[in-house]
Every structure is written in C-alpha cells, then in structure tokens.
Specification:
Distance between the termini: 25 Å
CATH topology of the largest domain: FAD/NAD(P)-binding domain
Strand order of the largest sheet: 3-2-1-7-20
Number of helices: 6
Strand content: 15-25%
CATH architecture of the largest domain: 3-Layer(bba) Sandwich
Length: 357
C-alpha cells in the first residue's frame, strides 16, 4: 500500500483520481455509510453557486442539472457516479481514530462497520475529512439557560420544522444568509431575527462560484493585483438571498449581549423573544485522528505548504479551506490541491509525477 486517503467526500475523491492516474496503490477510508460526503447532510434548498459545468471534480464534468444550479441531491449522485466511473477503492463505513508514525511511514487505525478495529500501513497519508463533522458554536452568556430549540446549520433541514415558531439565525456568512432567507420567505414562519457581528458584506449580484474560483486561482498563481475572494465580500447573492434582501424580509441585527430563558438581550437594553436558534457559525477542521502526531500549528491551524504538512514527510491535508489552499474546500477548486499532494507524494516515493492528458 502506497497511500491511505482518509475521507471519501469531494476532496478524497479528487485525491483518488490523481492517485489512480499516478499508478499508486491506495485505499480510501470513509466514515459515512454512503457516498456523497457532507452533501448528504445539507438543507433542502441549498444549491451550488455555479452551474454544473463549473462545479466539477478533475477528469469528469458534472452532468447538467434541471432548474438552475445543482442542488445537493444532484451533487451526491455525481459523487456516487464519480466513484463508480473511476473504480475508486472506498471502504465504508470506517471511522479512523488514530494516525501514528511508524517505521516506513504511518499506521492508520480505524473501526469498521462491524465494530472491528483494523489497521492500514502506508508511507503516505492524505487526510481529506473536511469540516462538516465539527460544527462550531461560540460561547455567549446564557446559552445553556435558553429553553427553546438550538441547532447548528449542519442539522438544519427546511422551514417546515419551524412552522409557527419565531427563529433567530446567528451568522453573517453564506450559510447564515441562506438559511435566514429560507426561513424569511416562508409565510409559515412568523418572525426571523438575523444576527451578525458586522454588517453583511454582499458580493456584487453578478458574482457566482465561477468568479470566486477565478480570483482564488489568480491568487495561487501570484498574479499582480490579485486580491482574492475576501476583497469582494462574504455572501454570494443567490436568488433566495437576493429576494429576501430586496423585499426587506432579510434584515440584520447586531449580536445580542446575552441569551435568556426565552430570548435575548442586546447592549442597548432591547429584549426580544424567540423559540428557535440556528447557529450558522462555521466549522472547525475534523483532524482529531491526527492528534497523536503533535503537528506544528500557527494561529490555530496546522502549518502547511499548500497541502503538505510542514515537518511531517508523507502527510497531506486536502480540502480544508483557504489555509490549506485557496478554494480547496470547493468542488471546482479542490483538484489543483489534490494534484499538488499527489505530485509531492510521487516525488517522495520516487515515482515521478502524475501523468498529464
């Protein structure tokens, strides 16, 4: 075995594509029982920021979707068919609990669907576990005393679960804006409070995933004047967000000072009551399986050069976001970082580089 890939979502599959092309022996260990990665857990109204032809993994373009940009079900079907098309050797479900260094590389320890502990040995490990399994909720006074329902956006499904209930949505990025709009446009949800730390930074209405990828790629290439995605804004104005914003249904409030048993209190003394609270406050990298490696960290992140972990030859992180490669957490953007990881692994193993076609 040359390589163990941990994670069978979009990043793991992109790595597998290039490992297959390089002729390396590898296996993909996936925690989930079915293909699709995090896309199997998203809310019903979620759609990609771009058309299918601009949302593809390396090698095979995503088939077109009906009714606009692809929804999550379309992406899940694409990832399932991608596995089949390239005969990717995925073992699932396997929950990887530990990666440790050993003579000749690494030992990967996991528990399979039969609850048996198994081990794999390889000189190279690609971690592609993403962030979805580690939702983040910030500390705020009174959170434990609130008697209503609290859920992270990773568990939000649709407005149907909130009919007749007043909802506060917390978070000023894409998930917060989209879920707040989803709720605000449903007449069965009587009231929406959308709370963010700062004023929402909407991207220009004509900017979608294609432009975001172009900007991220320009930054990777070091083009003069490339400002990256952050220079434009934080929120892609997908149609529901545009409608809710333009009709006044989506109005932002500052973050409350504290929660109460039935609502929240703001710094100016204002109080509001609500029934449900949806935290759209992001995720953290799912890297607990690497805790035993004592990896170098800076500003809370593992220190990497692109996908390669500094000081740990043979270990790569693919698909965790901009700190491990701009646009690496997107379908269209992860391929370049998966290829970089496999090229580096080939050099480490003395196998040349990935074949070009």
């Amino acid at each position: 075995m040359d390589v163990v890939v941990i994670g069978g979502g979009q990043a793991g599959l992109a790595a597998a594509f290039y490992l297959r092309r390089a002729g390396l022996e590898y296996v993909v260990l996936d925690d989930a029982p079915e293909p699709g990665g995090a896309w199997t857990h998203t809310w019903e109204s979620l759609r990609l920021f771009s058309p299918a032809e601009f949302s593809s993994l390396p090698g095979w373009q995503m088939p077109p979707s009906r009714g606009g940009n692809p929804d999550a079900a379309h992406v899940v079907d694409y990832l399932r068919r991608y596995e089949e098309r390239y005969e990717i050797p995925v073992e699932r479900p396997v929950h990887v609990t530990e990666v440790r260094q050993a003579a000749g590389g690494f030992v990967v320890v996991g528990v399979d669907g039969a609850h048996e502990t198994r081990t794999w040995r390889a000189p190279v490990v690609v971690s592609a576990t993403g962030t979805w399994s580690r939702p983040f909720v910030p500390a705020i006074d009174g959170r434990s005393t609130f008697l209503g329902r609290q859920l992270h956006c990773s568990r939000y499904v649709s407005p149907a679960a909130h009919e007749g209930r007043r909802v506060m949505v917390v978070g000023g990025a894409n998930s917060g804006a989209q879920i707040a709009a989803d709720l605000a446009l449903d007449p069965a949800v009587p009231e929406i409070l959308w709370c963010t730390l700062d004023e929402p930074r909407y991207l220009p209405d004509d900017v979608d995933g294609r432009e975001l990828f172009r900007l991220a790629s320009a930054r990777v290439r070091g083009e003069e004047g490339a400002r990256g995605v952050g220079g434009l804004g934080d929120i892609v104005v997908v149609p529901p967000v545009r409608e809710a914003r333009d009709t006044g249904a989506l109005r932002r409030l500052p973050m409350p000072q504290r929660l109460t048993r039935t609502g929240a209190v703001w710094a100016d003394g204002t109080t509001r009551e609500f029934d449900d609270l949806v935290w759209c406050t992001g995720f953290r990298p799912a890297l607990r399986h690497l805790d035993g490696l004592d990896l170098p960290r800076e500003s809370g992140h593992v220190v990497t050069d692109g996908p390669r972990v500094e000081g740990v030859p043979g270990l790569y992180l693919v698909g965790y976001g901009d700190w491990a490669g701009p646009a690496s957490a997107t379908l269209i953007g992860v391929g370049q970082w998966a290829r970089a990881a496999v090229d580096d692994a080939c050099a480490l193993l003395g196998r040349g580089t990935v074949r070009r076609r």
